[in-house]
Structures are given as C-alpha cells and as structure tokens.
C-alpha cells in the first residue's frame, strides 16, 4: 500500500510539473521572422464569428503579420458542430482586418492539431517555404510546436493569444495528456 501511495504521489507530481512546464513554455513568446504564421482553428460562435478564444489567436497572428514577421498567414480548421468552416471564418476575419486575401492560406482539413501540422508542412514544402511562427493559446503552444516539428516544419518562434478563461483549468491538463499522446505517436 505504501508503494502504491508513493507511485500515485510521483505520478501526480510529474503531472503537475508537466502542467507547469507547458504553461511556462507557452507564455514565453519567442519572436522571430519566418515565412508563414500558422493559426490552428478553434470554436466559431453560433453567429458565424470567431469565438473570443479564436479571435485572440487571430489577433496574435495579425500583430505578427503587421510587424512583417511573415508574409503568409496559414489558417487551419474544419467544420465544427456550429456548422461553420473554421478556416473560412478565420480567413474572413483576417481579410476584414487588412490582410490581403493573397496572403491568407486556408486549410479546411485541419480537423486537429496533427492534421494542421501535416497540412501546413505539405503547403510549405510545395512552395519552398522553410520556417513558421505559431499563434495559439499558451497551453496549446508546446503541442502545436511539437506536432509541426515532427511533420518537418522549422518553428522559428511563437506567440500566445492574450486570452484566458475558466475553461483553461480543463484545457491545461488536457494538453499534458495530449502532449504525452503526441510524443508516443509516430507521425
């Protein structure tokens, strides 16, 4: 029984350390210049506009684009339960905020982070692009970077969306499990 308790405490400690590392890594923005900014999808509001969480990701990408950190914004997502194509909604938001449509790459097949990574890597290879920046929530940064690097994308840097909500208390532990899963999954 004592051994079991120690094992449970060890696992709980490792899990807490993992959450701390994910938060610290995600909140430590790394600015760089790159060929492309990658923005993973998220929920679209029932009225067809980006949810506050998704809008924060897009606003982070807009800031990078306006600072001339990259010339292309790659938006990736699928059709969510609300019935909207996340990538199309994201592209419309960016275009409505001054990004020329020719500078927006739309990936409507990014149904999860791994699919976004594979699709972004294929897009970049086809165009001879070499590096990318990531714009997403702080807790999502490490797994997104990992998935992209595993897909062959050089991730030059990242920024986190300036948005937090109570739901993050669920999302952070979920990312620990997701990162572990990605680590043991072959690409």
CATH architecture assignment name: 3-Layer(aba) Sandwich
Order of helices and strands: HEHEHEHEHEH
How many separate structural domains?
Answer: 1
Q: What is the name of the CATH topology?
A: Rossmann fold
Strand content: 5-15%
The biggest sheet amounts to: 5 strands, parallel
- Fraction of residues in H or I helices: 40-55%
Find the CATH superfamily: HUPs
Computed over alpha carbons, the radius of gyration is: 17 Å
- Helices and strands: which structural class? alpha/beta
- Going across the biggest sheet, name each strand in turn: 3-2-1-4-5
Q: How many strand units? A: 5
Q: Helical segment tally? A: 6
Oligomeric assembly:
single chain
Catalogue the unreliable spans.
none
Label the overall shape: globular
Task: Give an account of the 3D structure.
The chain is built from six helices and five strands. Strands 3-2-1-4-5 form a five-stranded parallel beta sheet, with helices on both faces. The protein has one domain (2-184): 3-Layer(aba) Sandwich (Rossmann fold), CATH 3.40.50.620. β1, α2 and β2 form a beta-alpha-beta unit. The mean pLDDT is 92. α1 crosses α6 and α5 runs parallel beside α6. The protein is globular, with a radius of gyration of 17 Å. It is α/β, with parallel strands linked by helices and 187 residues long.
Walk me through the topology.
Layout: H1 2-27, E1 36-40, H2 52-66, E2 72-76, H3 86-96, E3 104-107, H4 113-127, E4 131-136, H5 141-150, E5 154-160, H6 168-184
Helix pairs in contact: 1-6, 4-5, 5-6
């Amino acid at each position: 029984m004592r051994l079991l308790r120690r094992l449970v405490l060890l696992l709980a400690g490792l899990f807490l350390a993992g959450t701390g590392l994910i938060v610290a890594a995600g909140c430590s923005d790394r600015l760089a210049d790159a060929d492309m900014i990658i923005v993973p999808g998220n929920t679209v509001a029932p009225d067809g506009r980006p949810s506050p969480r998704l809008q924060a990701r897009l606003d982070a990408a807009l800031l990078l684009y306006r600072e001339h950190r990259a010339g292309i914004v790659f938006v990736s997502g699928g059709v969510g339960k609300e019935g909207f194509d996340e990538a199309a909604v994201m592209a419309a938001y960016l275009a409505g905020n001054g990004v020329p449509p020719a500078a927006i790459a739309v990936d409507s097949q990014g149904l999860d982070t791994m699919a976004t990574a594979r699709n972004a890597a294929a897009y970049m290879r086809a165009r001879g692009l070499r590096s990318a920046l990531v714009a997403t929530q702080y807790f999502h940064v490490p797994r997104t970077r990992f998935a992209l690097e595993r897909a062959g994308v050089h991730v030059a840097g990242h920024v986190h969306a300036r948005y937090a909500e109570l739901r993050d208390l669920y999302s952070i532990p979920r990312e620990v499990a997701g990162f572990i899963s990605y680590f043991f999954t072959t690409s």
